[in-house]
Amino acid sequence: MPIRRLFLFLAALASLLALPGCGKTSQRSSPDVRATEVVVRLPILMARATATPAPATPRPTSTPIPTPTPLIHTVVAGDNLWDLSRRYGVSISALQEANAILDPRRLRLGQELIIVQPEPGEEQAIPTPTPLAYAIRGLTFHTTPVGSLWCLGEVWNTTGTPLEEIQIQIALYDEAGRAVASAQGVPALDVVAAGERVPFALLFPDPPESFARYQASPLRGIAALPGSHRYTELRVVGDSGLMQGDQFLVSGQVRNTGKITATVQVVLTAYDARGDVVGVRSHSLPTALAPGDQRPFTISLLPVNQPVFSYAVQTQGLEVR
Fold first, then answer.
1. Residue 187: inside a domain
2. Which domain holds residue 83?
3. What is the spatial distance between Cα 151 and Cα 145, in angstroms, rounded to a whole number?
4. Does a structural domain hold residue 120?
5. Candidate from 46-60, 186-200, 263-277 with smallest mean pLDDT
6. Does pLDDT of 8 surpass 60?
7. Cα(180)–Cα(173) distance, rounded to whole angstroms?
8. Considering only CA atoms, which of 99, 100, 88, 98 is closest in space to residue 124?
9. What CATH number does residue 173 fall under?
10. Chain mean position to CA 311
11. Average pLDDT for residues 29-56, to the nearest whole number?
12. What DSSP assignment string belongs to 93-160?
């Protein structure tokens, strides 16, 4: 029967397929199936070392130290920065800076100066009163009708540089060598040029009845400071001198040969036949002198001895600002 044959064929085929090694399949050994352990190596993430913040150190707080209370000094006749620096123990530069002083030579009577005291531990450069070498010559002494005594002479600048802040002392001694009087003073001009001479006149208001000898001493004298407002571009022209009675009279003109307007001071010195000083007079022109201008002057003095053998006229200015 066809259906029966088909059924038998299919059954035989199924049995053949169920037997291992039968048929035309390749003889390949089947590998053992083993459990495979898969190891996945992931990067280990380590936390970075971080610095443990230290407690914030507060900045030092400055403890205010009380500033020394400045002293106030009122300028009187004869005051200068040199003496004030020594008196108060403050440098000249500190005095200039605290008081905005451009020219240390020009202090006004009644001017109030701030004397700043140094901070604790701060050292100030205090000038040593050692003057530069200069000569004091041509001294003469003359008694006045009221009993006072004049000492006249000149400061000779024997250094190679202009000098300023000059102060001299004249001391009188008795027969036993004891000092019986002394006086201090300054020359008639603020700056003495190198190789030049400038007169001075010192007054002893209450001199001794007599003295055996005297001594002239330089107390101070420094090289002229740079940036000085002293003006020297001035010339005396056409001057002439003559005696009129007891007076010695000199006339002439001052010419400004520089480029700066300046006030003008004229100093007249009279000499006897030996070259000693017998008269000194200072005169200021009434108005400032512009560059290129010239102006007349007339000065008279009463010489302590006559006749006047020779004379000298010197001039110096102060820059007008």
1. yes
2. 71-115
3. 15
4. no
5. 46-60
6. no
7. 5
8. 88
9. 2.60.40.10
10. 39
11. 40
12. HHHHHHHT-S-TT---TT-EEEEPPPPTT----PPP--PPP-EEEEEEEEE-TTS-EEEEEEEE--SS
Please report which confidence band the pLDDT of residue 9 belongs to, taking 50, 70 and 90 as the band edges: low
CATH number at residue 91: 3.10.350.10
Alpha helix positions (H), the chain: 2-18, 81-88, 92-99
Tokens encoding 180: 């019986």
Question: Smallest Cα–Cα separation from 166: which of 139, 191, 199?
Answer: 191
Mean pLDDT over 246-261 rounds to 95
Question: Confidence class of residue 154 from pLDDT cuts 50, 70 and 90?
Answer: very high
Asked whether residue 245 falls in the same domain as residue 288, the answer is: yes
Report yes or no on 151 lying in a domain: yes
Closest C-alpha among 93, 96, 90, 91 to residue 71: 90
Q: Which amino acid is at 183?
A: A
Total domains in the fold of the chain: 3
Mean pLDDT score of the chain = 78
Same domain for 209 and 156, yes or no, is: yes
Query: Can you name the residues that pair with 203 across neighbouring β-strands?
Result: 150
Residue 91 domain flag: yes
Q: Which amino acid is at 238?
A: G
Average pLDDT over residues 125-150: 79
Residue given tokens 């199924």 in the structure block: 14
What residues contact residue 13 under an 8 Å CB cut-off, 6+ apart?
none
Q: Which range among 34-38, 153-157, 259-263 shows the weakest confidence by mean pLDDT? A: 34-38
